[in-house]
Every structure is written in C-alpha cells, then in structure tokens.
Write a structure and sequence with these properties.
The strands form two sheets. The protein has a seven-stranded parallel β-sheet with strand order 3-2-1-4-5-6-7, sandwiched between helices. It has twelve helices and 13 strands. The chain folds into two domains: 171 residues, Rossmann fold; 152 residues, Glycogen Phosphorylase B (Rossmann fold), CATH 3.40.50. By secondary structure, the chain is of the alpha/beta class. It is globular and about 65 Å long. Strand 8, helix 6 and strand 9 form a beta-alpha-beta unit.
C-alpha cells in the first residue's frame, strides 16, 4: 500500500513537541506502519524538513522560516495557536505540487488535521482520502472515510452532524503507543500527578482541591501556568514543574501513585491515560467521553462523578494492581496491536474500490480478531 501522510503544518515532527497529540500521532503512525505492520507499505511524509519520522521519502514542505513567518518563534514548551488560515493555504499549495509528482490512482492520502487539508485532497479524486485519527472538533471533519479515536467521539460527532445511519466505511481505531517509551514500576512515590495542558477544561482545579482535601502532594506538569486559571500563587501541597519532556514524563508517570484527569469536557481519547497505564500507574478520571472505554473501573483505576467519589478513589488507589494497568494498555493500545486494526481497515477500503465493493470476497481470511479486546483479570 502507498500512503501520502500530511504532516501537522505548525510543528516539527519529533518526539520533543509532546504538547501536540496530532504531531505525535503522525510520528507513531508512520513508525507503526513501517515496523509493526504485516504489509509492505510505502510512506511519503509531507512536513518540516527537520522531521524525525520513519518513512520512505520525507518531502520538505515547511522549514523554520515557514514556522517563524506564520506562528512566531518555535517553542516546544508552549502551546501553539492552531488556527492560521494563511499558513494552511501556503502549506496546501506546496503539498499539491509535490503529491502530483508522486501519486498513483488509489493511493491513500492521510489527513491528520482534518479540514485544513481539504484543498489538498480535493485535487486528487482518484486517490482514497482518509482522516485516520479523528479526535478534533466536528467542524474539522470532512472526508468520506473516517477513523475516530473512540466510540464516544464517533457517536458524539455523528450527533452533531445529524447522522443517524452508520456509515459502513467509518471505523474506530484507538490511539497507539510504544511501550518502550515508558518505564514500568510497581513501587510508587508519595505523590499524585496531573500531566497535560494546564487549563480549566482538563479539571486541574479539581486536582488541586483533591490535594488540599487529602493533604497529599500533587505534581502538575505541562504547558501554561496556574495564573491563567486565576491562581495568584501556587497552593499548598502543589508543585508546578512546567513542561515535561520525554524523559521527565517517563519518570513522573512511573513514580506517581496515580494520575488524575478529571476533564470537564468529553475527552475524545486522553493519551496520557494510556501512557500512565503503560507505566503501571492507575488513573482517576471522570465518567464520560473515551474514559468509559479506556479506563476500566476498578481494574485500571476509577471513574468518578462527585468530589466524594474522587476522594475515595485516590484514598483507595492502592487497590488497583499496576500489572493490570500495564497489560490492558499493551494488549489493546500498543503499536503492535493497533497496526492490525489499520491493516484490516485499509484492506476494507481497497476492496470497497474494487468491482464488487461491499460484497468483495476474501478467500484468505482465517480470523476476524481486529475488534477483539483483551481484558486483564479484575
């Protein structure tokens, strides 16, 4: 299979800019298809000239001059403004020129940032355009073939789009991770952890209230600061450590008693939850969005709806076995596992474009395991 992967135009594709989940998704996706897949895939990647990505050909579309012109000085420790229509137009024009040189009919064009790539993919109707990791807002969804990162987000999006019949060739494939990037530990230090963007929507205020109620140490790591949330000073029991790079993230997660993510909004996925589980660290979340799918209540952590429930969950977090967290994450969200879901999905799309379409036969099939979940002992 041949894939034209459209990079995220506002960042450099490397592991240092962890603030953009979609940038990290493209990096892992290319690595997964080249290393973990059973298929012989050929990948073109269109992005920054200094991208560190596993592909057959890196086509330099942007550079530091491009980023400085449209987004200001590049700083991996800060949150970059997503919306820049002038940058989108420039990026699109450059991509069209380069794809035209390389594409063949029925190639896949993968849009990891949705509607901003529409001007590119519209130029190539003989290719198969896929949005392969939808966790962004509904107004950014546009392609005929769509992969959502959770069933919660798929159904939420369908509701917003007034879709009440299921499109056959959409699917749900969760986000995916490299277990080797995380350190598994069963012995924990005496602190609870919040790691992510420091914004109200993520429930950082609830994390702080829990630390104060329980008298436990809370470490907060991520872009932004508490002043943006109305805190004039750092509260008692709270340590603010700033941006967490790959190594700091690994250490913070593996040593924490638990990770807190009491998001107010419907999380499309919540990568940090699986990253924490890969570290053997249980999670405490709200009880909506993707958490209902990825956080097994009583097995990998707890899902809560009142402050009293959050308090109980943190006080009883030692009831959760670290090995169950690790096993659930590896068996269902590792790149080795998720690559098989993408193999099945792209094969479906290729057959959909054959003479028989939906009714195309597959004499080679000997299993139908792509949607199977593997559960740890409760």
């Amino acid at each position: 299979m041949r894939f034209h992967v459209l990079g995220i135009q506002r960042t450099i594709a490397n592991k240092t800019y962890v603030a953009c989940a979609f940038t990290q998704l493209t990096i892992r996706f290319c690595h997964m298809l080249k290393k973990s897949s059973s298929k012989n895939n050929f990948i073109y990647y269109y992005g920054h000239n200094k991208s560190e990505i596993n592909c057959d050909e890196l086509i330099p579309i942007t550079d530091n001059n491009f980023l400085n012109k449209y987004y200001g000085e590049y700083d991996e420790t800060k949150i970059i403004n997503y919306e820049n229509y002038e940058a989108d137009a420039d990026y699109s024009q450059r991509c069209v020129i380069e794809i035209e040189k390389r594409k063949k009919p029925k190639d896949f064009i993968l849009s990891f940032w949705g509607h901003s790539n529409k001007k590119i993919t519209d130029k190539f109707p003989d290719c198969i355009t896929v949005e392969p990791g939808i966790g962004y807002p509904v107004n950014n969804i546009y392609a005929n073939f769509r992969v959502f990162v959770s069933y919660a987000w798929m159904h939420f999006s369908y509701g917003k789009m007034n879709i009440d019949n299921g499109p056959w060739y959409d699917t749900v494939i969760p986000n995916y991770f490299d277990p080797d990037e995380f350190e598994y530990k069963e012995e924990k230090s005496d602190y609870i952890l919040y790691l992510g963007r420091i914004i109200k929507a993520k429930g950082v205020d609830i994390c702080i209230q829990l630390a104060e109620e329980l008298g436990v140490k809370l470490i907060i790591a991520g872009q932004n600061d508490l002043k943006s949330m109305g805190y004039d000073k750092i509260p008692k029991n709270v340590e603010l450590v700033g941006h967490a790079d790959v190594e700091k993230r690994k250490q913070l997660m593996s040593n924490a008693k638990c990770l807190l993510l009491p998001s107010y909004y419907f999380e499309p996925f919540g990568n940090v939850v699986i990253e924490s589980m890969l570290s053997g660290t249980p999670v405490v979340t709200t009880d909506w969005g993707a958490f209902a799918e990825i956080n097994l209540h009583g097995t990998t952590g707890y899902r809560c709806r009142t402050f009293e429930q959050f308090v109980w969950a943190v006080k009883n977090i030692d009831k959760i076995k670290p090995i169950n967290c690790r096993n659930w994450a590896i068996k269902n969200y590792s790149m080795d596992r998720v690559s098989k879901l993408y193999d099945e999905y792209f094969d479906m799309l290729q057959k959909q474009h054959s003479k028989n379409g939906f009714y195309e036969k597959n004499s080679d099939r000997n299993e139908l395991d792509w949607l199977t979940k593997y559960y740890p002992e409760s």
